[in-house]
Predict the structure.
Amino acid sequence: MKKMPREQPATVFCDFDGPLVDVSARYYSTYRLALANVCDYYNTDNLLISITPLSQEQFWQMKRNRVPDIEIAGKSGIPPAAIDPFLAQVSYIVNHTDLLYQDTIQPGVSWALNLLRSEGIELVLVTLRAQEQAEQILAKANLLHLFSGVFGTHASEDVAYVNSIELKTQLLKNAAAVHWPMPVRDQQTACTIGDTEADIWAGRNLGIETIALTCGIRSREYLQQQSPSVILEDLVSASNYLVRSKVTCA
């Protein structure tokens, strides 16, 4: 098996939550608030329930291995009758404006994006987050100007939390139609960067290289099951891989 030059992609379709933004603190706060709200409701009705909240490390490990919220609720002591109200609370709270401040830009993101742009690579954001919300966060972090386009949702606020493969695939197709049109595809390559199965399957459906990152909401073990083209740690690693490791197996 010899190594041969690999063509550097001309367009990178990058996800938002995970590769660019750390959402772990917000997701854990959502979980704790939903637990507290459900307990308050049932205890007011004299139907006392006792919960044992998971630690942030325990919770995030379960989320990264895609343990269902129903199972997370059960392991936290939520009785069966209260699970649906708990899930409804999670969906309602997760993108509340009072919690969004907890999201933080991942380390090295600005450097990584600027490296890709310096190589002439076009950056396009494709996210299940509300488009206006993503653009505001990027603008505040002085990163919005680095992207040629932003493709997000205009649907309900919990779309990003649900992580729909079908919707992510459609958004990627919409972005590709504008920034990687058919006449260009025979001459230039593209790839996706993301942290979930939705990103991997969307890229695969488009027939392009898929780079999965472990800095987001999925573990390396889970991502391996999805068979992306390559698994890397973060956006800095991905940028170095795309720019400096221009080889592929043949």
The radius of gyration is 20 Å. The CA atoms of residues 126 and 151 lie 5 Å apart. Strands lie at 3-5, 11-14, 21-22, 104-105, 122-130, 149-153, 190-194, 209-213, 230-232, 247-249.
